[in-house]
Amino acid sequence: MALIEDYALVGGMTTAALISREGSVDWLCMPRFDSPAVFTSLLGGPEHGRWTLSPAAGPDTGATAARRRYRGDTLILESEWDTPHGTVRVTDFMPPHSSAPQLTRIVDGVSGQVTMQSVANVRFGYGKDAPRIRAVGDRTRAAHGPDTLWFDAEPPVTAEDGTLRSQFTVGPGQRVAFTLTWQPADVIPPLPEPRNSLASTETYWNDWTSRSTCTGPDRETVVRSLITLKALTHTTGGIVAAPTTSLPEEIGGSRNWDYRYCWLRDSALTVTSLVRAGHLDEARAWRAWLVDTLGRNADGVQIMYGLGGERLLPERELGWLPGYENSGPVRIGNAAAEQLQLDVFGEIADALDTARRYGLEPCPQASALQVRLVETLEKRWREPDEGIWEVRGPRRHFVHSKVMAWVALDRTIRLIESGAATGPLDRWRDVRDEIHDQVCEQGYDPERGTFTQSYGSDELDASLLLIPLMGFLPPDDPRVIGTVDAVVRELSTPDGFLLRYPTHGAHTGVDGLKGDEGAFLACSFWLVEALTLTGRHKEARTLLDRLLALRNDLGLLAEEWDPRLQRQVGNAPQGFSHWALADAVSRTAASAGHIGPVVPGPRIAHRPASQPAVPAVVA
Question: Which residue segments constitute the domains of the chain, with CATH numbers given?
Fold first, then answer.
């Protein structure tokens, strides 16, 4: 089985596929990100569905592509194999925003005469259900229940035991195309036009990336992450956290979760990153999705939803799948949808505030929704919650949750002061100050000189690094500097990256789970920003360069890094990692005087009247 970092991503803003260096599509859900997979070998074996397109097996034929790359600033994947008989290129892509999701694979002969083979083993229902296959003229139809996949191939196709096979030879200048298209069972899709689709897909991505405001020496790095974030957006305006489920946070462990849903937090942070880079359309679409999804039900807001605003996301295990490298169980759905996570109010308010400050036109419905959310938060901010990391243990008064509750009040006060909404300004200013005072009194350990994970706790948490990034305290505050030092001291892995918080192996920890996990990449990027803000620019750049070196050859990152196995772990590609990368690179670039997407830093809005300024400390 391929390493997690060996996979490439292609997508069309409806769903996405993961493709290995061997030319195998090992993961693809149809028709949406959160639909059942039709190729599921990523979490099992070939018998659970995959589609391989590569040179025909031979004693001298390389099993993996010798080279691969994305075509310029697009999501079009090009993989090349060198064989004793010649060189061949496979181009993989998904046309954007198609009403009929489609994966297109084009083979081009580069030199010599290369014999290729296509082996497509379609299995519906996450690898469980074999389709009914029949020929319809020159086309092949694979159906199960309400879903149908149309397999269109230029070379002849044979069907045997549910597997579609083709073998053909290409020479220089010759091109052979394959397409796989989803449709409801009662719809026959038009014949595909793969060559035209390739041209229009390239035009789409080039137009999109040309609107980016990114410049400077790190432009390519940031743009690749922005493209990845765009690939996680859906035509509904919803944004998934990752296109996969159950890729383990620890190889062989059970911390395996389904990330194919729209976390309000992850979506808001993704939108914030895109907005800073000049992409307002995504903010506009997400804002409309948010208004439609939450409606007037601010009291019952969930922390995540389905792409269409679905509220019921029951969690279950798929016993027939062994899991990635036998890391079971494989889960679909996510029980965290029922948790209370107070921080999401802050991320939503900050994203809407950022979008407005970067030029997104006003939306009365969104402003009214923001006010209703803060009305709910005013009633609930004193409660303990499960926090940003979705602990499955007892609720706690997490410091990060309280800080983000302060952010929600702060940004909404700014909204009201601008005249775009109405609300009880004086009362909410008092609540904002009350939250600030409580955090500084109950969430800070003066003996150790650091904020703690939760009130009364001895543990630390990397989310504390967001205190200066969100403007809760200025970066020169001694409490901020002490917290940064403590997080580095107590949460660093041997290779200098950060854990989210301590885990306890075989013993149940603060999150209510057994087992360990890798270094959380977003937290390590937060440290880059915190070091930059506190004037430790050389340390920040050194850490950033080491983090960027963890990306695969295509610039992609999973959720975590295993310091023991020296490999990526967790769901991939992970939106959390990529927006944090874009923000960290942009902040270090700004600190070095390069022009790029401006990252306000820190986002100081108002210092509470009860909180005096503190002398600056030189780090």
Answer: 4-207 (2.70.98), 211-591 (1.50.10.10)
